[in-house]
Design goal:
about 30% helix; FAD/NAD(P)-binding domain; 15 strands; about 525 residues; 3 domains; single chain; binds flavin-adenine dinucleotide; alpha/beta
Length: about 525
């Protein structure tokens, strides 16, 4: 029980991160939490309500899901398209539109949620701040979130909706010994170049790196996925004329969507046929067969992929660790390029740039990066099954993709929580482990009362967890778990005439750190 002089525990929820998931959680909490609840939304960056993906200001960055399926509310997936009809009329529900429009819709949704909350007697605060730590509730107290400016906010429940971790670019190999060097000599005296040095752009969302780039300069992009293609369109938009080479291990590009995506006919992936099959090899064989059957039936392979989507988490969970590893090693590049497809307009544009010779695709492995006397970068890579290629480039951009690998994070809130044992990475370092209420599992395997996670790191347990249709469902589950938690605390408070701690309110494991 709290001491008589203790201030009452604030009946609040803090949502850390105002990107897609944060907005989806707030929208649901605004409708579900009891009057009197205080909601605080924290966002560290300038992309309020938009997050990393939808904070782009480039009209060449397009959504890779049709507009009619991108609503925030899982019960109203047409929500974004309905909004679009008001603001940018004339786009069909199965059309692909710029990503920044989804960002505008999310901002409008956050505003609407704030107004709804206020009408229902809740209060909402938006804070531009970076959360750096979370401390669990002690008996009778609230949990505490520490901000980078030293302030400490209190709340009964905290939702981590912090998105992807910053990209972790690959190592920059040291230059090989010069022609006069003794064979196999290691160039000990050549210091490695580091990302962030001139011309070495580690994070493709830091677009200020493109300011002042000579329009004829040669650019090498590491990666050939969706992020790399975003970079190509970004460069073209600013009038870049120079050659852009995309280098990735296998040289695979994302497949295009059909110009008007259709819903798949049910039954194209009859997963029930698999029974409780848990071997990757057998699953793969079945998927190939379904693909062939669909082709024989004049159906598109995309429909098979789409109809697999709902059962992907259960297939993933059945795989042994060894099979998951095999999947990541051998199949993931094919999965990614077939599952995460390009909007047709962007695909046509890329094909045009490749046909014109401005964009080249190379399969290969980076061998070395050196700086020439004139400041340019001298880069060598081993082509897959081919010779070593040498090029001089003005800019090397890391577009190997966003990361969810928790054990690679060394700074920031999630890294701190991992170091303290509050968050646990999975064995393959794909994300975080949570219980059925989305409470992160600590190193002892227990969910912490009052702490929740939603976002792409759920990939660890579900594999399919990074796109809007899954995220909005997960956000709904988190918000509902938080609302139940808050209601239970409220009920305990009323019954006892005193405030119970979150730990007392749940029968779950103790929440001491
Ligand atoms: C470039 C890109 C394009 C994509 N395109 C599509 C698409 O077309 N269709 C689709 O379905 N999916 C797409 N996705 C996938 C998915 O929709 C997004 O990743 C999704 O936006 C993730 O939402 P989120 O809320 O988890 O993260 P984000 O939207 O990134 O939001 C997280 C927010 O938390 C903030 N934050 C982080 N740490 C802190 C802290 N300590 N304190 C305060 N604030 C913090 C960040 O600044 C950020 O704004 C795309 C992803 C990317 C990266």
């Amino acid at each position: 029980m709290p001491a008589a002089q203790d201030p009452p525990v604030p009946p609040g929820v803090i949502v850390i991160g105002a990107g897609f998931c944060g907005v989806a959680v707030v929208a649901r909490l605004a409708a579900q939490c009891p009057p009197g609840t205080h909601l605080t939304v924290l966002e560290q960056g300038p992309r309020w309500g938009r997050g990393l993906a939808y904070g782009t200001r480039s009209s060449s960055h397009w959504l890779n899901v049709p507009a009619g399926r991108l609503g925030l509310d899982p019960d109203h997936e047409a929500g974004f398209h309905d909004w679009l009809q008001q603001v940018h009329p004339g786009h069909a529900a199965n059309a692909f539109v710029p990503r920044m429009w989804l960002g505008d819709y999310l901002c409008a949704s956050l505003q609407a949620a704030t107004e709804l909350a206020q009408q229902r007697g809740l209060t909402v605060t938006h804070e531009m701040a970076t959360a750096v730590d979370w401390l669990p509730a002690a008996a009778g107290q609230a949990a505490a979130v520490t901000l980078s400016d030293g302030r400490v906010l209190q709340a009964r429940a905290v939702v981590l909706a912090t998105g992807h971790l910053p990209p972790s670019p690959p190592a920059l190999p040291r230059p090989a010994p010069g022609p006069d060097a003794v064979a196999n000599e290691v160039a000990e005296d050549v210091p490695p170049l580091t990302w962030g040095a001139p011309g070495l752009m580690a994070n493709p969302s830091q677009l200020e790196w493109l300011d002042g780039l000579d329009e004829d300069a040669e650019v090498l992009v590491l990666g050939s996925g969706l992020t790399a293609i975003d970079m190509v369109t970004m460069l073209q938009d600013q009038g870049h004329q120079g050659r852009i080479t995309l280098l990735s291990r296998r040289g695979l590009l994302p497949q295009p969507h059909r110009s008007l995506e259709a819903r798949p006919r049910p039954g194209l992936s009859p997963v029930a046929e698999l029974g409780d099959e848990s071997r990757l090899r057998h699953m793969l064989r079945a998927v190939r067969r379904w693909m062939s059957e669909a082709a024989a039936d004049q159906r598109d392979w995309r429909d098979v992929m789409a109809s697999l989507r709902g059962c992907t988490p259960s297939l993933w969970q059945r795989l042994s660790l060894r099979d998951r590893r095999q999947f990541l090693r051998h199949l993931q590049p094919w999965w990614d390029t077939h599952r995460h497809r390009l909007a047709p307009g962007i695909h046509r544009r890329l094909q045009g740039a490749m046909a014109a010779g401005q964009v080249a695709l190379q399969a290969g492995r980076l061998l070395s990066v050196d700086r020439s006397a004139d400041g340019a970068l001298s880069v060598r890579w081993q082509r897959r099954g081919g010779p070593v290629v040498e090029a001089r480039v003005a800019l090397l951009v890391n577009c190997t993709g966003a990361t969810t690998g928790l054990s690679r994070a060394s700074t920031g809130l999630l890294a701190r929580l991992r170091q303290q044992g509050v968050l646990t990475p999975d064995a393959l370092d794909l994300g975080v482990l949570v219980d059925e209420q989305h409470r992160p599992l600590d190193t002892a395997g227990h969910g912490r009362a009052g702490l929740y996670y939603v976002g792409p790191m759920l990939k660890a347990q579900r594999w399919e967890a990074v796109a809007v249709p899954e995220l909005r469902r997960h956000a709904r589950q988190v918000a509902d778990a938080v609302a139940v938690f808050m209601a239970e605390l409220e009920a305990d408070t009323s019954a006892d005439g005193a405030t119970a701690s979150p730990a007392e309110a749940l029968s779950g494991p103790a929440c001491a750190r």
